[in-house]
Each structure stands twice: as C-alpha cells, then as structure tokens.
Design goal:
With 282 residues, the chain is an alpha/beta fold. It has helices at 42-53, 74-81, 91-101, 176-187, 214-220, 230-242, 250-257, and strands spanning 2-7, 12-19, 22-26, 29-33, 38-40, 57-62, 71-72, 84-88, 117-119, 124-127, 130-136, 145-149, 152-156, 194-197, 211-213.
Length: 282
C-alpha cells in the first residue's frame, strides 16, 4: 500500500509505503515559514495520523538526496517511531561542497555520519515483507538514489509528471548527461512499472498527480521521451537551467538537510540560527 502526502508550499510529495504492519517513509517534509523563520511538522503529523490509525511500525525513513527546496522531515520519524534514517553513501560529496559554501569549518563532518544508514546502488533493505532496493540515479545531484519496492519506483527529483518533465541539473555536482543516463535506466524497466515522483508543480493548474508509469514517461515526457537523444537533452537542459532562479528555500533547506534534518546547534541565547550568504555586488 502506498499513501502520498503533499506539501502545498514546496510542491513536495512524501510517501508512506506499507505491507502488513511494516512501513517505511520516503522523502519526508518538514514545514518552514520563511517570513517568520518558523518550522513545523504539519505534513509529518498528517503521515503520523495515517501510520497510527493503522498501527504501523516504521523501520526506515529514506531521503532520495539532499533536497534543495524543502527541509527534510527525517528527525520526526526517528524520534517518534525509532526509524533509522537512510540516504546514499555519496552524500558526503554534497556535504563537502556546502561545508565550504556555508563556511562551517573543518569540524563539520563530511562523511554523512549524521545519517544512520548509507546505501549504494543495489543495496537492499528489508522491512517485514517490504523489500526496498536502492537504485543510483545521479544527475540532479551526484548522490541521488531512487527506491524500488516491488513494481513501484520512488524516483525523487529525477522525473516529474510527463507534462512537466525532469529535474534541473545546475546545483553543485549536477550533470545533465548523468541525469539522462539515469532516466534511461528507469526507462529500461517494464512499461507497467509505476513511478512515484517527489514533486508535482501542477502545470496549468491541473489537479495533483503523483504516479505515472515507465510507458507513459517514455511516450509523453515533455523534456525527455523515448525519442530524445542524449545530446538533445543535454543542450535543452543547459538552456532551461540557465533560465531558472534559485529555489525559494535553497539556503535554508540545504544547511538543515546536510545535517540529516537537524537544526544547527543553539547559540548562547538558546536559539538556532540559519546562515544565508550574501552575494557580492556586481
């Protein structure tokens, strides 16, 4: 059984996947209000109500990558259910880049030890009868993993709905050629394979969607269908990414997410602070 939860502010989708009483949570969202710099667990609490109503046991909470547009909700499920946090082993490369950008100093670990489990391509987690396989799908970020559970793949920010396209590749470590190759890997699964995306931006104001199939994506993805060549996609992605602005919560989200969702240590007055670098004057 798969249940989605949607955060309107960041267009983010998180999932509770369960069979019997065993469950995992994928790409959880922590709510953040930038005008007052307030955090909340509203979307996680919605998922918790669903979990508690069914008496589920949450073994793992998984992030596909270090998100750049919303704060991760990993700590909520660790604290409430004792779930173990999971991400790709290559996350340390992302931490290294952002340790420099945030000037966090050499004392900030860049080996992803903030997370409980680090997985590589092909690694498998077992939660009751649920079998969760890690699939390396880099390109949006260098350490992106998708999660395969039976006939479903949770693709994070690799693919969106066919009418919106694919992820951007202009963040540190992003690479359009690698994303093309990752999507071809996904397109290699059976056409009936279900794909669950991490965002839905609802182009044209259409109703929310979160599930497609490999066949649908190959036939009608507006940026990369079965007929798109690698060179065509790389050229398109470079043009498109050059037109995109920085995500609204980029600087707030990344510095929390490289800490596995924990806020920075409180200062002497008991409050935690987020760092926002100021760009130099042109």
């Amino acid at each position: 059984m798969i249940q989605h939860f949607f955060d309107e502010q960041t267009f983010s989708l998180m999932y509770v996947v369960h069979d019997g009483k065993a469950a995992v949570v994928i790409d959880p969202v922590r709510n953040y209000e930038p005008s007052g710099s307030r955090v909340a667990w509203r979307t996680c609490e919605e998922a918790a109500a669903y979990i508690d109503a069914r008496g589920l046991s949450v073994a793992y909470v998984l992030d596909s990558h270090i998100h750049a547009d919303h704060l991760t909700g990993l700590p909520f499920f660790k604290q409430r259910y004792g779930a173990r946090s999971v991400i790709g082993r290559g996350t340390g490369t992302v931490q290294e880049v952002f340790r420099k950008l945030y000037n966090l100093g050499d004392g900030f670990p860049i080996d992803a030890r903030q997370f409980d489990l680090l997985l590589d391509d092909g690694d498998v987690l077992q939660a009751g009868s649920l079998r969760i396989e890690a699939l390396a799908t880099p390109g949006h970020t260098p350490a992106h993993l998708s999660w395969r559970v039976d006939d479903a793949i949770f693709v994070g920010d690799t693919l969106f709905m066919p009418d919106y396209g694919t992820a951007r590749c202009d963040f540190p470590g992003g690479d359009a050629g690698r994303l093309y190759d990752s999507i071809q890997r996904l397109y290699g699964f059976a056409d009936r394979t279900r794909l669950f995306t991490g965002h839905d931006y609802r182009p044209g104001g259409r109703a929310l969607r979160w599930e497609s199939t490999v066949g649908e994506q190959k036939e009608s993805n507006v940026q990369l269908d079965a007929r798109t060549t690698r060179d065509e996609y790389i050229a398109f992605r470079k043009r498109r990414d050059a037109q995109l602005g920085t995500p609204a919560l980029f600087w707030q989200a990344v510095q929390v997410n490289i800490r596995a969702g924990e806020l920075p240590e409180p200062e002497a007055n008991g409050r935690a602070y987020l760092k926002i670098p100021v760009a130099p004057v042109d």
